[in-house]
Amino acid sequence: MKIVAFERSVQGTGASRRLRNSGKTPGIIYGSKNKPEVIELDHNALFHALRKEAFHSSILDLEVGGKSQKVLLRDYQMHPFKPLVLHIDFQRVSATEKIHMRIPLHFTHAEESAAVKLGGAIISHIANDIEVTCLPADLPEFIEVNLSNIEVGHSIHAKDVALPKGVSLVLHVEQENPVLVNARVPTVKAEPVEAAVAAPAAAADAAKEKDAKA
What we know:
The protein is of the alpha+beta class and 214 residues long. Helix content is 21%, strand content 39%.
């Protein structure tokens, strides 16, 4: 994706407020041993770009002053209750240095699985992305997880996912192999027997009392 930004000459809280009032969003580009570069972007174009999945997980072509550079979206701040992007951070990437990114998962073919078709199971998504490391050229926009073979009571873990060439899974000590999705048959609570018997009996007593008064 291509993003166009402009050099920002003034900084500070007041300058950022005036910038936002004029329909712009302040931002910064950092990394790759170059000094940070303060920028501004058209707010509406940025707001719509943030709604696209690829904007969060792809290498972006960011053009500033007619020069393009490869960057990743690293952070952005939204207004607490207004649809307003307050600030955005981009990180430069080098073609020869590996990057860490959280990549969205696309779960497919769940309806074809025995768990759903024969077992009446419900597929629960425990995680919608995983962290990977790779060179920028190998970064996938998303990773597909085929659920056609999942069975009732079974789960798919991070290590079960087939990763594209050049992409490695990043796992942390607290979660050595986290669950991504599972298939469970919903449990239906049976009505207590006493309550089921008591209901018609109470109705019958009420009918007798009504007849007696009549």
